[in-house]
Amino acid sequence: MSAPAPSLFTPAAKAMAGKLGLKKGRANLEEFADTLLALATADRNIVAVTSDSRGSGKLALFGKALPKQIVEVGIAEQNLVGITAGLAACGKKAFGVSPGCFLTARSLEQIKNDICYSNVPGVLVGISSGVSYGALGSTHHSLHDLAVLRAINNLTIIVPADNFETREAIRYAAQATRPVFVRFGKAAMHDLHPAGTTFEAGRAITMREGRDVAFIANGETVVHALLAAGQLAEQGLTARVISLHTVKPLDTAAVLAAGRECRAVVTVEEHLVNGGVGEAVAATLLQAGLSPRFKIVGIPDEDTVTGAQADIFRHYGISMEGLAATARSLL
Fold it and tell me: CATH number for the 26-190 domain, one of 3.30.565.10, 3.30.465.60, 3.40.50.970, 1.10.1670.10?
């Protein structure tokens, strides 16, 4: 038997989560699957397309409950995108579900032409993205996906941070009239948002106010930014935390406000530092004439270390301790 994966959180980080009142939820993929099943049960036009991925996409129950609303194409990601596009063009609300590393590399031409250029309202769901596959290494890491997809016109890109954002993103995607890509990892997530929080595609959520530093993060990195803000508060520094769940279109108003009002800006992403959220934020700030102290925290342009997601996060400073140290060094 293999050893259990190490925790993403040190004892100090777990203690801070308790202080902030954060409770552990479940993996966003599980929330995605249950939300999609509920929507598809109510609307028989909603279909799922999988590439030998109903297990990893948590869609086994969907397949049993709605066997006529799921299409299995096997390990053929290009076909998956083409079929998703065809079903969407015929009036179905099709969700193409496949590991992000393969979906956005093998099928990039189909995403560009069959989905985006053809302007069909297909939804592509990249599962097990970032470094979720851990020790399987760079062949299975999806650290390029946001960069390549940002370069394609007519595509909304959403990276949910917790179960709430996941649920709302899938509900949004089911009603969208243009192409959507949603990115998920595998880890169980903390519930980050209080009751009454509203979700709107293209509008970031400010989770904590502050003036010393702004953490702009998305996906599974947001909780680490929130914990770092808690640690900094104990040291007399205030940190704004922004969940930039929609990568495209970018909420430029939230980004510019952070650049104007905070002494430093730190972006955090489970992605290569090239072409991701950090560069999008930097371009927005610089073109507006703003130049706060700035740092992109992500995976550097190097051979990525091999290990569990937790090992990789800590190695590259995507942790409460690492992000707090980065902020202090800027300030």
Answer: 3.40.50.970
